[in-house]
Design goal:
Strand content: 15-25%
Number of strands: 8
Order of helices and strands: EHEHEHEHEHEHEHEH
Distance between the termini: 10 Å
Radius of gyration: 16 Å
Low-confidence stretches: none
Mean pLDDT: 96
Number of helices: 8
Strand order of the largest sheet: 7-6-5-4-3-2-1-8
Length: about 230
């Protein structure tokens, strides 16, 4: 079905990954340390998840909480090591202190990823100027999605921005898919789907028992049915 929406689920380990795939996830975002909003997972974790499931995996490249890049050389080494482990898709995004995109770091990572597809994550929700950021990144190879809630506070606050950006799909800077995530609830879906948005990202919503509990396949299946 060509209008099937994409459902991406955060996985911390192979157990999460198996449950998410069983529930109908199309893709996984691999991270560690959700207390820091998701950091780069180990090569061993990525390998274990890759062996456990056969859906696409997007691997986080992020060394510390916040949206500053930190040690860029370490990020580049992580990217190279994960590529060597077989990772083919990634998630990253960094801002300079003034809220503009950290193009130096992003371009260094893009260079070592050699055309791999990647998501610019929720750093866009902290950007000084979302439209300018999109246009600055528009020519970078591999960028095919923005993970965004429309606002730093989450989808409740960002809904008008998401709807406005959905209406601009296909225009310069707006070609990448809008992957909605960050405080996303089932009751947001009807208006988002009606606006043509077709990619959704969940973390805590896939874990009724909280972040200390694994992904629940039944919770993922409920989302799978709801997103269409």
């Amino acid at each position: 079905m060509s209008n099937r929406a994409v459902l991406e689920v955060i996985a911390l380990n192979a157990e999460d990954a198996v449950a998410a795939q069983a529930g109908g996830a199309d893709r996984l975002e691999l991270v560690t340390e959700m207390a820091a909003d998701g950091l780069t997972p180990s090569r061993e974790t990525v390998a274990a998840i890759r062996a456990a499931v056969d859906i696409p995996l997007r691997v986080m490249l992020r060394a510390a909480d916040g949206f500053a890049a930190g040690d860029v050389d370490a990020l580049v080494r992580d990217a190279q090591a994960l590529r060597a482990e077989g990772a083919e898709e990634f998630v990253f995004g960094f801002l300079d202190p003034d809220g503009t995109p950290d193009l130096v770091t992003v371009e260094r990572l893009v260079a070592v990823l050699e055309g791999c597809r990647w998501t610019f994550h929720r750093a866009i929700d902290r950007a000084r100027d979302r439209d300018a950021l999109r246009k600055q990144l528009a020519e970078l190879p591999g960028l095919d999605a923005y993970l965004t809630a429309g606002a730093a506070a989450g989808v409740d606050a960002g809904l008008p921005v998401l709807l406005a950006e959905a209406a601009r799909r296909g225009k310069p800077g707006y070609e990448p898919q809008i992957l909605v995530g960050g405080g996303l609830r089932l009751d947001h879906l009807p208006v988002l789907r009606a606006a043509g948005l077709d990619a959704f990202h969940i973390g805590g919503a896939a874990r009724p028992g909280g972040w200390s509990a694994p992904v629940d396949a039944a919770a993922v299946a409920e989302w799978r049915e709801a997103v269409g």
